[in-house]
Amino acid sequence: MSVFSASMHHRSFLWQISAVCFVLGMVLAASAFTATQIARNGVRSNNPALSYGSSTQVAVEKAQQSEGEIKKLRDRNTELENKLGKGTDAASTLNKELQETKVIAGLTEVSGSGVQITLTDNIKEGLAPNDPINLGNYIHDVDIANVVNELKVSGAEAIAVNGQRISTQTAIRCVGSVVHINFVPAAPPYIIQAIGNTNALYGGMNLPQGVLDEIRKVNPAMVHMDKKSKLVLPAYSGSTQMHFAKPPKSALPEKNSKSETEKDAQK
Amino acid sequence: MRSWLPLVSLVSGFAVGFAAFTAFKWEIPADFAPYLSVAALAGLDTVFGGVKAGIEGRFQNDIFASGFILNTLLAASLAWLGDRIGVNLALVAVIVLGSRVFLNLSLIRRYYLNKRALAKSVQQEESISASLPASVLGQKPEVGGGI
């Protein structure tokens, strides 16, 4: 008893220990928080390009801003072309053809009837990313690409995935955990809108052993298809600059090509 | 019960810290996580050492405060140094500090068990003394002498 007897009366040390305990609790919290973060997100490297608020983030935001600008400028271009076309008959015919070509190329907003297909991951099953058995539970880039392909086969005239218009330059590809469409990340649910003959599209997509059928085999809830009387698809907002592909000289009118090159030289 | 105070403040410190980390989205780089763990263990060791010293009546606040800060920093920097020179000194710190925590904890536990045993024997003695005639009370045995 003699060793401990002093403590019974002097308890002021408890306050100091409590104060230090508070600090220790915060240190433990920091440690625990970091540990859970690592468990959830994996070890993140110190590379600033990969972390939040980094140059990548800034670059992506800038790219999105530029896309908006490109869209505005293209609209303005169309407007000017239309004004120019009002002058003469020949010019108006040319402009009409130009506008039609732009619609085909996906450079203008289009509207019309069609179908809307929504693809979602199989949420009910466990979504373990590294489990090869569960890979069927995800919507992959190839699934989207196959659906887009099938829509074209079924007679779709314009297609957009998650607000990204499918154009001649469009690539659909998996990057990490997201799918890039026109180099813009998209996440599930993937909403694929197609303008065309509604019944033809609907029937074509529901063919037995078709693309959607394969996905429905995993879980019918992963696919949802609607007929829409009015869909509005945005214009393609990516780059259309051609550096290598040029039409053969025989296909170009002699004068025009010359004046074009002269203009370029003046610039 | 003031003896619960350290535990209460530890839990509240943990809660406040965790809430702050969640609310303000603070992040500690994953590279520093092991050093932080070792530092926390060193802090834990110091706190248990402080409680033990307090129970023994040898508590000195300057030793305790400086010990907490320096042990924490030393453990973290030792672990860091170990990583730099390719020796797992973090493991060494964990083993040494862990064994010290267990040792201190066993001493603290012993103290509380002794206290309880003492209280019990005092109670027994009182009940015995109430039933015994007054002449026997003269030879009072040493309370808890055998513990």
Can you describe this structure?
The complex is a heterodimer of chains A (267) and B (147). Chain A is of the alpha+beta class and 267 residues long. Chain A has helices at 13-41, 55-85, 89-105, 141-153, 198-205, 211-218, 254-266; strands spanning 110-119, 158-161, 164-165, 172-175, 178-181, 184-186, 190-195, 223-233. The longest helix of chain A has 31 residues, at 55-85. Mean pLDDT of chain A is 78; it is low at 1-9, 45-50 and 257-263. With 147 residues, chain B is mainly α. Chain B has a domain at 31-129. Chain B contains four helices and no strands. In chain B, helix 2 (33-56) packs antiparallel against helix 3 and helix 2 (33-56) runs parallel beside helix 4. The radius of gyration of chain B is 23 Å and the shape is elongated. Classes of the chains: A alpha+beta (267), B mainly alpha (147). Chains A and B meet through helix 1 of A and helix 1, helix 2, helix 3 and helix 4 of B.
Task: Describe the structure in brief.
The complex is a heterodimer of chains A (267) and B (147). Chain A has 267 residues and is of the alpha+beta class. Chain A has helices at 13-41, 55-85, 89-105, 141-153, 198-205, 211-218, 254-266, and strands at residues 110-119, 158-161, 164-165, 172-175, 178-181, 184-186, 190-195, 223-233.
